[in-house]
Structure formats: structure tokens, C-alpha cells
Amino acid sequence: MELRHLRYFVILAEELHFGRAAERLHIAQPPLSQQIRQLEGELGFELFHRTKRNVQLTQAGQVFLGEVQQIMRQLQQAIQVGQQTSRGEIGQLVVGFVSSAAYNILPTILRKFRSLVPGVSLELHELTTDQQLEWLREGRMDVGLLRPPVEENRFTWEIIFEESLMVALPEAHLLTNQSDVCLTSLATEPFILFPRILAPGLHDLIISLCQQAGFSPNVAQEAIQMQTIISLVAGDMGVAIVPASLQNLQRTGVVYKTVQESTPKVGMAMIWRKNETSPIVQRFVEIVRQVDRQC
Prior knowledge:
Layout: H1 3-15, H2 18-25, H3 29-43, E1 48-50, E2 55-57, H4 59-86, E3 91-97, H5 106-116, E4 120-126, H6 129-138, E5 143-146, E6 155-163, E7 165-170, E8 180-181, E9 190-193, H7 200-212, E10 218-222, H8 226-234, E11 240-243, E12 254-259, E13 266-273, H9 279-294
Parallel strand pairs: 3-4, 3-5, 8-12, 9-10
Antiparallel strand pairs: 1-2, 5-13, 6-13, 7-11, 7-12
Helix pairs in contact: 1-2, 1-3, 1-4, 5-9
């Protein structure tokens, strides 16, 4: 029994006329009659009462029709789901992000993705850069937003957002009276910084900037998350050099100042496995690229 046999049966059951059914199916009448006989032979019961004047469903044919129509609906649904899945329109996506992404590009990405692909369930995890790399290696995460660079060639990554660095000062600090801050004026200040292992690229950039200004920062306190660093600055525990988007945190007790010296921009990167075949991941990547072009 083939799917076409069931389709022929349904069309004939709707028309109850071999000529009209054959016309709808774009085949000749004799082959249609032959296919229906073949189907009845396989089933072991008659589907139609045939006379010279009309064609009627048997009682068994009526019951069989209801079941076949349900199968056809389920098949159509299966086809639709398969097509949506192949286009990355339904399913689940696990996304990791560093905390600072929540203050720049992440909200825009999420709004865009949810509006264009509402059928995909997003599972979000706030993770440091090193944690995201571990999750990607273990297959626990599909795509991430982290601080570059990434040295492992098993991943594909690209910059999706760039921003300047700023100095975060306690609001009572003397330097808040200045329009901008010279890095050399921070030489004796206690610094709040994250451990290098969490985001080596950004960590090394901050250290390098200080060294170019003639000093090595006195790291008095380490913190894992950017919002924690800002909270410690607000608590007068020290100063910090942070991405400019942290201003969006709007933490009271902190004043942000631009840096007098020319400083390179820091990037946010999107990362995924190089051999990734998931249509959902590819759809996410496409949408993030759209957001990047519009920013």
C-alpha cells in the first residue's frame, strides 16, 4: 500500500464518481479503478458499492475514510513541522552571554529574534567567557555572546558590537570634577578587576592600557560579573575601567568618565561550533548579523 492509493481513495470518496475523481487526480479513469481495486485487495474488504449509475461508500469504507483523513491531516502537520524545523522556525536554542552583553546588544537581539522566530524557545544563561567555551565544547550550549578573542579553531566567531572603554569612579571621588580622566591619574588608585581567566582579551587590554600610561594597576579586589564590579565601585572600594555600555546599568553612586588617551574599542563576539548544522543556530546567526548591520 502506498500513500497515493490513500489519496486516490479520499478523492473518489469525496466525488463518488470515477470520472470526476480521475479528472481531479489528472489520471485516466481505468488506472484509477485499477488502483482502488488493488487497495481493496490489500485491505481485504470493499470500500465502494459500484453500480452503473452511482458509486457509494460501504460501511467499512466510511469508517476507513475517517481514519485515512485523520492520517492525512497528521501527515500534513508533520510536513509543516518538518518544513518549519528545516527553516529554523521551531525548536529550542540555548544561548550564553556575558553579563555586559545585557547592557548593550543582547536586548535588541532578543527582541528581533522573538519577533521573527516566535516558534523557537530561547534558553538563556549568563556565563563568563571561559564558561561559555566549556559549555560549547560539551554541547550544552548552541551559541554565545562573549569577549574575544577565542583561540580554539573548533569554533567560529565574529565581532558583532564594539564600544569604548570608560573609567568608573565612586561619586565622591575627586576626579569626578574633571570632564575626562587621564589614565596616569589612576596610578595610585585601588582597582577592581575580574580574574584574567574569565575574559583574557579584555583583561589584557585593560592591563596594557595602564602599563602604557606608566603603571601596573593595583588590583585591590576581583569580581566575576561586571555589575558586581560597578557595585563595588559604588561602595568606594576602588575604580574600574569598563566597557561604555555599563552606563546603562544606571547604578547610583558611580560616575563614568571618558579616557583622555586614545584607547582601542572592545568587542563583543558571537560564537558557535564550526561544524554546526542546526537551522535554528543558522537563523539566529543571520538575525544577529542583521542587528549588527543596523546598529
